[in-house]
Amino acid sequence: xxxxxxxxxxxxxxxxxxxxxxxxxxxxxxxxxxxxxxxxxxxxxxxxxxxxxxxxxxxxxxxxxxxxxxxxxxxxxxxxxxxxxxxxxxxxxxxxxxxxxxxxxxxxxxxxxxxxxxxxxxxxxxxxxxxxxxxxxxxxxxxxxxxxxxxxxxxxxxxxxxxxxxxxxxxxxxxxxxxxxxxxxxxxxxxxxxxxxxxxxxxxxxxxxxxxxxxxxxxxxxxxxxxxxxxxxxxxxxxxxxxxxxxxxxxxxxxxxxxxxxxxxxxxxxxxxxxxxxxxxxxxxxxx
Length: 288
Ligand SMILES: *[C@@H]1O[C@H](CO)[C@@H](O)[C@H](O)[C@H]1NC(C)=O
Ligand SMILES: *[C@@H]1O[C@H](CO)[C@@H](O)[C@H](O)[C@H]1NC(C)=O
Description:
Residues 49-261 form the Heme haloperoxidase family profile domain. This is Chloroperoxidase. The protein is 49% helix and 3% strand. It is mostly helical. One 2-acetamido-2-deoxy-beta-D-glucopyranose (NAG) binds at residues 58-59.
């Protein structure tokens, strides 16, 4: 990208931010959509009916993100996970998960920029998002670090089970719910462990916030509901009858999202888990 390209990228980012402010204000004055009416008519998931789930086949492209893989598994994105237009991604995340329109434009543009492609014209395969320390980073709640598992489409079931087991809250029906504090605790533990088990471990400040953004998606769009998260994280499947838990007409905006991301990140205390992590690393070294 030349200087003009870079300038226009940042200029557009600023414009998207401005748009996000307007959408956030709009949400403050408009009422939420009723339960059962979040997904708009004519889109996959309307009325709780999601297109058929078919787990990935050999050679299908998948990535480190369970929510995107689930869209491919339901055919909302191409089932083979290949040749996806960035613009298509923007359109489909909007109605599938009810992220705000600004958010849905922001993230795929960042991805296109990272892959040095043209957001408006080009396509990508899901696995291309796993460029290490681009979007993909260490200390995942659902994947082993790249140094230990180069194929980031492969989930690490033990991590996911542990994450879900950290839920301390319950809804009115007694079903398990993850809270902000639970996400901070498991993130701290995962980072402390990754640091001592992966000698190539890296975690920039940017990626810490990115990780907390993943956690915050689980708390907002998925409402922290362990049952639903089990389907999304383990099967990469959208549960039957599911709809996004954010019911605001303009969806989850980037500004509103920060009210979850910031507390989750600021309460993450890696140091609290350093002793446990060290014992784990020592016992693994002992086993070798
Ligand atoms: C997957 O790709 C490999 C290599 O391109 C090919 O040999 C194999 O037949 C493919 N498998 C399927 C099920 O398409
Ligand atoms: C957040 O998602 C990215 C991409 O899917 C992944 O590489 C990263 O490890 C995740 N972070 C956490 C803390 O789960």
